[in-house]
């Protein structure tokens, strides 16, 4: 969750100041929330962090907040929404140590109160001759995996696509079966839009 006061600091660092910063600060201030389950309601609580989901400004403010996460990072870093990936070619021990140092530099998260969920952080060694190395984030050892889903695509450590192809094939088959069972008239005018929207 994005701390509001620190977000204002980021906005000012991007020379977004004056009336715009004041307006955003007022937009985020004095927000309250509570939990409702059936007829039971909790007490109101002040929201001190996070950007309003579903708003136009929300994604932009989040991007501004995490934009400098790659400061001093040598390895290639990829950011998509709240997912972050660190990649590097590790041919020698010095390369692996450099990648580990970059992982240590991600203490940015502690400074800006955006801690990584280490339990969801994994290591994927690509290539059969890639010597395994035990990487850490802080004091936590990262789990090594044989495959990783990246934006919906399953990537194996041997870069073979069998798992991705089989998963996509099975998913498409299930959707085609659903269409076949639930649509009696199978004219091209009906089937083509369904296939384009749900299967392809």
TrEMBL record:
Query: What highest taxon heads this organism's lineage?
Result: Eukaryota
In its keyword annotation, does this UniProt entry include Transmembrane helix?
Answer: no
> Start and end of every Reverse transcriptase domain?
1-155
Q: Name one GO molecular function term.
A: RNA-directed DNA polymerase activity
Matching entries from Pfam families are given as:
RVT_1
Which InterPro entries does the UniProt record give?
Answer: DNA/RNA_pol_sf (IPR043502), RT_dom (IPR000477)
Q: Does the keyword Nucleotidyltransferase apply?
A: yes
Among SUPFAM superfamilies, the record links this protein to: DNA/RNA polymerases
* Keywords of the record: Nucleotidyltransferase, RNA-directed DNA polymerase, Transferase
- Which PANTHER family does the record cross-reference, listed alphabetically? REVERSE TRANSCRIPTASE DOMAIN-CONTAINING PROTEIN
Q: What name has this protein been given in UniProt? A: RNA-directed DNA polymerase from mobile element jockey-like
Species in which this protein is naturally found: Hirondellea gigas
């Amino acid at each position: 969750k994005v701390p509001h006061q620190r977000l204002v600091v980021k906005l000012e660092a991007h020379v977004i100041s004056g009336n715009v910063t004041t307006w955003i600060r007022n937009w985020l201030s004095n927000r309250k929330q509570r939990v409702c389950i059936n007829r039971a309601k909790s007490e109101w609580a002040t929201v001190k962090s996070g950007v309003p989901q579903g708003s136009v400004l929300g994604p932009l403010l989040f991007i501004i907040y995490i934009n400098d996460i790659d400061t001093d990072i040598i390895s290639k870093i990829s950011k998509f929404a709240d997912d972050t990936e660190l990649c590097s070619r590790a041919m020698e021990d010095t390369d692996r140590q450099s990648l580990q140092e970059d992982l240590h530099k991600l203490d940015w998260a502690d400074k800006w109160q955006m801690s990584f969920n280490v339990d969801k952080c994994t290591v994927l060694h690509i290539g059969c001759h890639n010597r395994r190395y035990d990487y850490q984030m802080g004091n936590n050892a990262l789990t090594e995996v044989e495959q990783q889903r990246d934006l919906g695509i399953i990537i194996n450590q041997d870069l073979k696509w069998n798992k991705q192809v089989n998963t996509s094939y099975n998913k498409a088959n299930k959707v085609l079966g659903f269409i076949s069972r639930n649509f009696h008239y199978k004219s091209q005018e009906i089937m083509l839009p369904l296939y384009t929207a749900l299967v392809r």
